[in-house]
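Late entry, written up from scratch paper. The run itself happened at the end of the previous shift, but nothing got recorded in the book at the time, so transcribing now.
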Amino acid sequence: MFLIISVLSQKRRIGQREIWRRNRKMVIQLISISIIYMIIWIPNVVCHVIPLIVSSRLPYETATDILHYVQYIPTLLRPFMSLIGLPEIRESLKRTFMRLNHVQPLT
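Output as recorded:
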């Protein structure tokens, strides 16, 4: 998150539109990957903090049994997030989804 904030503050300072047009895709990919990691790690962190506050062992056992394997999901999703950044793939996805929304008149 600090990297994203740093990049956005630098954008305001410099104000070079052409450079930021080229880097916009990279920033979008960075934000999407960061969000995926935060979504995956927050439940694991919460389940490890709860036993420190409450003397129950159930949240810790749940974290070690179930949430331990959820950590591998970002690794599996990362290539797809990078592929979405490619213009050819993005156009192909747009054509696929736009084709599904066409309404034809009845004759």
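The chain has a mean pLDDT of 76.
(Scratch paper discarded after transcription.)
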